[in-house]
Specification:
- The chain is an alpha+beta fold and 207 residues long.
- The chain folds into 2 domains: 30-81, LysM domain (Membrane-bound Lytic Murein Transglycosylase D, Chain A, Roll), CATH 3.10.350.10; 86-204, Arc Repressor Mutant, subunit A, CATH 1.10.10.2520.
- Helix content is 44%, strand content 12%.
- The protein has helices at residues 2-18, 40-46, 51-57, 75-78, 86-100, 105-120, 128-132, 143-147, 156-166, 187-190; strands at 30-33, 70-73, 135-136, 139-140, 177-179, 194-198, 201-204.
- A 3-stranded antiparallel sheet has the order 5-7-6, with helices on one face.
- Strand 3 (135-136) and strand 4 form a beta hairpin.
- Helix 5 (86-100) packs across helix 9.
- The chain starts with a helix and ends with a strand.
């Protein structure tokens, strides 16, 4: 009898570990660490929230916040647009972090904008995940997918950059490609019309 219950316990644990949560499960919150000079209004604007929603999520009774304080960003407000899931937001933040973690904030927003510009283009796949994981001649469009660095956890800056891109900010003016000219060897991408340069990346569009 002891062996039987031991087997049941093992099977139960395996099911719990390997079975994904249902789509209706409560998403994990996103956290923001308050910096010197931050205000509730500025943070709410960054994440497309109302100040009231931000205060309610953190049980704040006034507008006073302190550097180092960790705020919970309510995900249900972030995803009110309806066309992107929490998983897609985090995936966008991951590719931004992997491709541009050494770049300025504008440079990171620009990388996110390129991904979203591709999503809106008829020449690329119609889902965010498919855009990021697309292959050409069996080579991933984005090198972090191939080398695995896309699996690095995104930092706060990358998540904010993803949100800015999702809110329509596009420092590239509609670019569909980006590359680092010091390491890019592909002649074709170097032949594309350049739109702008931000940090170490050149941003380009199609002919």
């Amino acid at each position: 009898m002891r062996t039987h219950w031991g087997l049941v316990l093992i099977l139960t644990l395996l099911i719990f570990v390997w079975c994904p949560l249902p789509a209706s499960a409560e998403p994990e919150p996103i956290y923001y660490t308050v910096k010197k000079g931050d205000t509730l209004y500025d943070i709410a604007q960054t994440y497309n929230l109302s100040v009231g929603a931000l205060k309610s999520a953190n049980r704040l009774t006034d507008h006073i916040i302190y550097p180092g304080q960790i705020l919970t960003i309510p995900t249900q407000a972030i995803f009110s647009r309806g066309y992107i899931s929490r998983d897609d937001l985090l995936l966008l933040a991951k590719i931004i972090h992997a491709e541009a973690r050494g770049e300025s904030f504008a440079g990171q927003v620009a990388v996110g904008a390129v991904i979203l510009n591709r999503l809106a283009s008829p020449y690329f796949p119609s889902s965010l995940r498919d855009v990021i994981f697309e292959k050409t001649n069996n080579v991933y469009q984005f090198s972090p997918v191939g080398d695995g660095t896309i699996n690095l956890p995104p930092d706060e800056k990358a998540i904010k950059a993803a949100m800015n891109a999702l809110m329509g900010h596009d420092p590239t003016g509609g670019a569909l490609f980006f590359y680092n000219p010091t390491i890019a060897r592909d002649r074709w991408i170097r032949s594309l019309p350049v739109v702008t340069r931000i940090g170490n990346h050149v941003f380009a569009t199609m002919f």
